[in-house]
Design goal:
The protein has eight helices and seven strands. It is of the alpha+beta class. Strand 4 and strand 5 form a beta hairpin. The protein binds flavin mononucleotide.
């Protein structure tokens, strides 16, 4: 766990960083769970001596995986944790509304699949990606009432969908590295019409040949 300040992409950075650690320990056959709402923020903040501006957006528990019969009903089951949105709802060609198929994605299909199966707060899967030639533009489709709502502010819960975007970036970039696909991140919003007011541009991956 860690804490972040109020800078513009701090929550995305946090998601990227903590998911990197999670993938590392997953590789060691350990189990993990992201916790964004259901933990006592103040006691974790004390443990790492977070400053007043430092928010602990989420933490991750790490441990040995329970055998199936030992575990009861979890939040994961309640939010349909195993379900994922299909490709056509997430990935598009040049503009929103034109689905990108795995064939269209070519060697990048594996990267998108790793984003698709990534974990997200309440399993909302806010990531949307548009392919435009060598660029992959990442957008966040906010869930209404999530993140900036009164309840979230009252409970001092971070804007967790921005953390989800960092997790998506981590899965995309790590898979690119694994497959030897070169590229870099750039924040430069393209002139693409967004489908609604809850959709926000995050970042683009520029592929390098
Ligand atoms: C930022 C973030 C916050 C989360 N917060 C919680 C939480 O507070 N409690 C919980 O049980 N699961 C939490 N989760 C886990 C999600 O519910 C889980 O990743 C999602 O349902 C998909 O499940 P799966 O990755 O196990 O397939 C969180 C996940 C993320 C990415």
């Amino acid at each position: 766990m860690g804490a972040v300040g109020p800078s513009s992409k701090s929550l995305e950075d946090y998601g990227y960083m903590l998911e990197s650690a999670i993938l590392f320990v997953t590789d060691m056959k350990l189990g993990t769970c992201w916790l964004g709402g259901s933990f006592t923020r103040s006691s974790f903040a004390r443990k790492i001596s977070a400053t007043v501006e430092g928010l602990v957006p989420a933490v991750a528990s790490v441990g040995y995986i329970l055998k199936k019969e030992q575990s009861g009903v979890t939040i994961r089951q309640l939010v349909g944790g195993h379900n994922r949105k299909p490709w056509e709802n997430l990935f598009f060609r040049e503009k929103f509304g034109v689905p990108l198929s795995p064939d269209d994605a070519g060697p990048f299909a594996g990267l998108l699949e790793m984003v698709r199966i990534a974990p997200s707060a309440s399993n909302k899967q806010p990531w949307r990606i548009i392919k435009d030639r060598d660029s992959w533009h990442f957008y966040m489709q906010r869930t209404r009432g999530y993140g900036k709502s009164f309840t979230f502010r009252l409970l001092n819960i971070a804007d967790l969908q921005r953390v989800d975007m960092g997790i998506a970036m981590c899965h995309f970039e790590f898979t690119a590295r694994e497959l030897g696909l070169k590229g870099r991140w750039e924040i430069k919003e393209p002139k693409i019409e967004k489908p609604n007011a809850l959709c926000e541009y995050t970042i683009s991956w520029i592929g390098e040949v």
